[in-house]
Amino acid sequence: xxxxxxxxxxxxxxxxxxxxxxxxxxxxxxxxxxxxxxxxxxxxxxxxxxxxxxxxxxxxxxxxxxxxxxxxxxxxxxxxxxxxxxxxxxxxxxxxxxxxxxxxxxxxxxxxxxxxxxxxxxxxxxxxxxxxxxxxxxxxxxxxxxxxxxxxxxxxxxxxxxxxxxxxxxxxxxxxxxxxxxxxxxxxxxxxxxxxxx
Length: 198
Known about the structure:
CATH architecture: Alpha-Beta Barrel
Low-confidence stretches: 136-141
Protein name: Scramblase
Order of helices and strands: EEEEEEEEEHEEEH
CATH topology: Tubby Protein, Chain A
Number of helices: 2
Largest sheet: 12 strands, antiparallel, barrel
InterPro entries: LOR
Organism: Kribbella deserti
Number of domains: 1
Pfam family, one: LOR
Mean pLDDT: 83
Number of strands: 12
Shape: globular
Helix content: 10-25%
Distance between the termini: 34 Å
Structural class: mainly beta
């Protein structure tokens, strides 16, 4: 079964402003170059109940999908992904027990139940220790970290999110599992950046 909006590979770029984090999702061409913009989103910092809306472009005139926290305070309650009509198309939540040493997430979409975790255990531990070190020159250390999601039943790859070495956050996302809708994959990718410290 192929998802209604399946995209095998895409990029995500982050722009940081005073009040919001902005994210641009860009299609990957077959040669690995950047293609057209798939969606644009922004996340308000310090929001009590997290909600991120994705738009067709930076004009924000057409909302195309979103994700929203189920509860204000219970961070383990999870996040639902909705299409443009408000219909749920998937969900994800952080596994706080396993995330103490290595960030881990559960991801669900029609026909898919997956688990994702940081690829490199050493980097995961160093990232946690770095949180207690003062920022050098007001620029945090840009760790290169990757997440791999696998199917709970078959252990086959579902999606991978790789952060590239740059001052601004930049990610490459591969989705080998055709059951995973782009909107769910994009929401999960933004969450890995925006909610990592929650």
